[in-house]
Amino acid sequence: MPVALALFCVTASLSCVYLDDNFREVEPGAFYRSGQMADHRLGRFVNSHGIRTVINLRGAAPGQAWYDEEVEVCSALDVEHFDLDWTMKAMPPPESLARLVALYDSAEQPVLVHCHGGTHRAAVASVVRRLLQGDSVDAARGEIGIFFNDAPIGRLIDLYEEDGGDFRTWVLER
């Protein structure tokens, strides 16, 4: 019976990651992260948290229902929408990482950043945000959850930690 209970708990927790959109507050009132949301849920989160900017880390996908609905919700609610094409299987290209930093600097807050599940790309984007805000690498790593499983995109954090220095400068000089 203990094995069955443990399997149930693991399965339930994995399911909850997707059932609740994996929505997390990273910086109170200013920055949130999540997985992909259905249009009605995105609208509800935008309204309830005052989201002014959505950054999609899945890349532009015109013609895909999830993408078209997301853009439509953002447009209807007068929310800025930006796309970056990241994958959990590789580090973000330097120009894309620099674009994220520029968006963080210029985007109207609060910001919601999301990927598909909210576990890998959104976690690294949250680490980037925290490092830009002056958090330590150890504190920023708190955005990496137990289901991250050493995804290659996380190598970004390791490389920065090896080099050290000012994070913004490190990103812009890569």
Describe what you observe in this structure.
The chain is α/β, with parallel strands linked by helices. It contains eight helices and five strands. It has helices at 2-19, 39-49, 65-76, 94-106, 121-132, 137-140, 155-163, 167-172; strands at 24-27, 31-34, 53-56, 80-83, 111-114. Strands 1-2-5-3-4 form a five-stranded mixed beta sheet, sandwiched between helices. Strand 3 (53-56), helix 3 and strand 4 form a beta-alpha-beta unit. It is globular. The model is unreliable at 8-18 (pLDDT under 50).
What's the topology here?
Layout: H1 2-19, E1 24-27, E2 31-34, H2 39-49, E3 53-56, H3 65-76, E4 80-83, H4 94-106, E5 111-114, H5 121-132, H6 137-140, H7 155-163, H8 167-172
Parallel strand pairs: 2-5, 3-4, 3-5
Antiparallel strand pairs: 1-2
Helix pairs in contact: 2-3
In short:
The protein has 174 residues and is α/β, with parallel strands linked by helices. It has helices spanning 2-19, 39-49, 65-76, 94-106, 121-132, 137-140, 155-163, 167-172; strands at 24-27, 31-34, 53-56, 80-83, 111-114. Strand 1 and strand 2 (31-34) form a beta hairpin.
Number of strands: 5
Order of helices and strands: HEEHEHEHEHHHH
Main sheet properties: 5 strands, mixed
Measured as a percent range, the helix fraction is 40-55%
Coarse structural class: alpha/beta
Bulk shape? globular
Strand order of the largest sheet: 1-2-5-3-4
Q: Which percent band covers the strand fraction?
A: 5-15%
What is the averaged pLDDT score? 89
Residue windows where pLDDT falls under 50 for at least 5 positions: 8-18
Terminal-residue CA separation: 53 Å
Number of helices: 8
Radius of gyration: 16 Å
